[in-house]
C-alpha cells in the first residue's frame, strides 16, 4: 500500500498516468521518475529525404481584405515584437522553467485534461507516457509514431484541434494505424521535444518510424491543414515508408529465427556436452571402482599373506616350544593317535603330567592341521578343554582328563565357524 500511495503521489494521484508508467517499467522502459542521464533525444531529423508539407495562411482577398490586413499589420508587428523582447528580457531575470523537466508524465496528463476540457473527449488516443517511452514502444512494435506539438499562443491551434484533429475520420486513421503522442510546448516535456524536432510553425505534426535501424522523422506537417488533406498526407507518408517497416519486420524475424536457431544449437551442444560429461563421469567412476576393487583385492592378498606368514611363524614357535617326546618304555607316557579332518593320522607320545595344551600345540604346529580346531574323545564322547576358558582357566593334565595309555582322539575343524 505504501508503494501504491507513493506512486500515485508522484503522478498527482492520476491513476491512468501511474498505471501507464508502471506498465512501461515492466516492459523495460525506465520510469520517468528514474530517468537515464539527460541527453539529446535520439531521433534522426537530418535526413534530407524527410517529406515536408507546409500549409501557408491564405492571402487576403479583395480590397477590403487587403485594407484590413494593412491596418492590422503594424499592430500585429508591434505586439509580437514587444512580446519577443519581453520574453528575451525575462530570460535574464528568470530562467525558462520549461528547460527543466521534472514531471514529464504529469505534463502529458495535464495537456490531455486541458485538451478534453476545451475540445471534448472525442479525440485520438493520447499516449500516456514520455516522448522517449513512445519512441521505444514504436520501435519495439514497429509502428508509426505521430507527434503533435500544440502551440497554445498560436492563432491556428484552436481551429486545428477542433475541426481537424477531432474529426471522426482523422481519429479512426490515427487510432488504427499509429501511436499518437501530443503535448503543449508550454510544458517542459513538450518544449524539450520541440527543441529536438525544430518546428517552424504551428500546428506541427511529425511522423516518426524505425528506418535504417534508427528512429527517424519521415514526415513533417506544419500549418492549418484540413481533415481530408491531413488524411491524404498521413496516408502518403505511411505508404511511402511502409517498405522500411516491412523490411525491418523481416530482418527482425530473421534475427529472431537466427537467435532461436542459435539457442537451439546451444541447447543441443550443452545437452551433448552434458551427455559427454556424464559418460566421462561414469567412466571415471568405473575406473575408480575398478581401482578400489583392485586395491581391495591387493589388500586382501597382502592381508592373507601376512596372516599365513604369522600363522606359519606361530606354528614354528609352537613346535619349538614342545617338550621332547617320551620314550616308549616310559610308564608315564601316553600314546595318542590323532585323526585329522583330512582323514590322515598322526601318532605321538605325551607324558601324563603334561597339560592338554601341549596336545593342542602339537596339533597346531602340524602343516595339515586346520587353523581352528577342537579335540574330541570318543569313550566317553567329550571335548577336551585344551585351551583356557572360564570353566577351565588352567587346562587339566592328560591324567586329570582321564586319558589312558593308548588313546584315539579326533580333530574337528572349526575354521569356518
TrEMBL record:
UBX domain segment(s): 329-411
GO biological process: ERAD pathway
Gene3D superfamilies: DNA helicase RuvA subunit, C-terminal domain, Glutaredoxin, Phosphatidylinositol 3-kinase Catalytic Subunit, Chain A, domain 1
Keywords: Coiled coil, Cytoplasm, Endoplasmic reticulum, Lipid droplet, Membrane, Transmembrane, Transmembrane helix
UniProt xrefs under InterPro entries: FAF1_2-like_UAS (IPR049483), Thioredoxin-like_sf (IPR036249), UAS (IPR006577), UBA_8 (IPR054109), Ubiquitin-like_domsf (IPR029071), UBX_dom (IPR001012), UBX_domain-protein (IPR050730)
Cellular location(s): Cytoplasm; Endoplasmic reticulum; Lipid droplet
A cellular component term, taken from the record's GO annotations: endoplasmic reticulum
Main location: cytoplasm
SUPFAM superfamilies xref list: Thioredoxin-like, Ubiquitin-like
UniProt keyword annotation of Transmembrane present: yes
Regions of compositional bias (Basic and acidic residues) in chain numbering: 275-320
PANTHER family in alphabetical order: FAS-ASSOCIATED FACTOR 2, FAS-ASSOCIATED PROTEIN
Protein task: Plays an important role in endoplasmic reticulum-associated degradation (ERAD) that mediates ubiquitin-dependent degradation of misfolded endoplasmic reticulum proteins. By controlling the steady-state expression of the IGF1R receptor, indirectly regulates the insulin-like growth factor receptor signaling pathway. Involved in inhibition of lipid droplet degradation by binding to phospholipase PNPL2 and inhibiting its activity by promoting dissociation of PNPL2 from its endogenous activator, ABHD5 which inhibits the rate of triacylglycerol hydrolysis.
Protein name: FAS-associated factor 2
Source organism of the structure: Bos indicus x Bos taurus (Hybrid cattle)
Lineage: Eukaryota, Metazoa, Chordata, Craniata, Vertebrata
Gene from which this protein is expressed: FAF2
